[in-house]
Amino acid sequence: MRPSTEPPPGRSLRWRLCCFALAGFVGFAFDAGILTILVNLGLDARLARLASFAGAVVVTWLINRSLAFGDRAGSDIAAEFLRYLSASALAALVNLGTFMALVTLGGPFARWPVLAVAIAVALSMTLNFWSYFKAVFTPKARGPDQAA
User: What is the pTM for the complete model shown?
Assistant: First the structure.
């Protein structure tokens, strides 16, 4: 039987999105849990949030790297993590900027700021997923023995 020259299939978009959502959920739980513990230990909430957020970024990177984008994770871990931080920071700015702009516009967003949060989160999550897929976890280069 002749070996297949077709590359192994990549992960489906549905798989990636489910794992991406799992990473977000676990990251949120980690962030909230560490924040609660540190505040209960007497640390100022702002300092505690910096620590809990930093930990949550590492946790979500590890989950996204191994599950959602494991087939695309690179060998230069430091560069990949810096790209992940940059993409996450950009999405956070989009999230906060969108929220602030919508609430400032007034109307239903001023009365129900959770609507602004929902739109801001949807935009930033979309940007995060897209940037992780296109710029952070880029496809692995094929060697000469793996020609297309």
Answer: 0.79
Residues 6+ apart with CB under 8 A from 148: 7, 142
Q: How many residues does the chain have?
A: 148
Give the separation between CA 12 and CA 128, rounded to whole angstroms.
17
Please return the burial class of 6, using the count of CB atoms within 10 Å of its CB with bins 0-12, 13-18 and 19+: exposed
User: What is the torsional sign of CA 134, 83, 140, 60?
Assistant: negative
DSSP designation for 12 = -
CB 127 within 8 A of CB 121: no
State mean pLDDT over 20-45. 94
DSSP secondary structure letter of residue 106: -
> Which of 24, 32, 63, 61 is closest to 49 using CA atoms?
32
Nearest to 16 by CA among 60, 95, 62, 70: 70
**pLDDT interval class at 15 (50, 70, 90):** very high
| Confidence grade of residue 126 (pLDDT, cut at 50, 70, 90) | very high
What pLDDT was estimated at residue 8?
47
